[in-house]
Amino acid sequence: MLSYKDILYSFTKELGNNFNEDIFVEGYNIQDNKKSCFFVQILPEVAQTATKKTDIKSFLVDIKYLPDWKKKKTDLFDILNKLENIFTRNIKVKDRYLTFSKKNGSIEKDEIGNYVQFLISINYHEQIYFEEEKHELMEELNMRFKGRSD
User: Fold this and answer.
1) What is the pLDDT of residue 98?
2) pTM for this model (two decimals)
3) How many Cβ atoms are within 10 Å of 4's Cβ, its own excluded?
4) Are 36 and 71 contacting, i.e. CB atoms less than 8 angstroms apart?
5) The CATH number of the domain where 68 resides is what?
6) Cα–Cα dist 76/80, whole Å
7) By C-alpha distance, which of 126, 125, 124, 107 is closest to 116?
8) Counted domains in the chain
9) 83 burial via Cβ count (<10 Å: 0-12, 13-18, 19+)
10) pLDDT tens, 57-84?
11) Residue 28's pLDDT is what?
12) Domain, as residue range, for 102
């Protein structure tokens, strides 16, 4: 069974292998960081029942690239292209590969400035493990039949 922490680790590891910027997954506060950085979070969505023993889990990976003040908007297009090349079709998480169902990259603007937002939607099947109920075996069964005796 995959945990969200395992999935988050795989995405941050991939970013760390391809970029030199700091990567944050919690305690995010843009005012505290003066240089370019990434902020990565997982947003769980609805889990649906597929079969008696499997669920379809859905979640969104939100990758934000927050540039330092020296970066131009045109530099952000390079970052966006690089993210699209890194995260093409799937990602390895432990012993499984999760396939991307949808990707959306954009350059957004807020009150502080421009930033890159890269969203990846993932759906995958997860096996559900149930604890087996243990019952004592029946040792003896006494039965009486009433009816006609010819």
Assistant:
1) 95
2) 0.80
3) 14
4) yes
5) 3.30.2000.10
6) 6
7) 107
8) 1
9) buried
10) 999 999 999 998 888 889 999 999 999 9
11) 57
12) 4-127
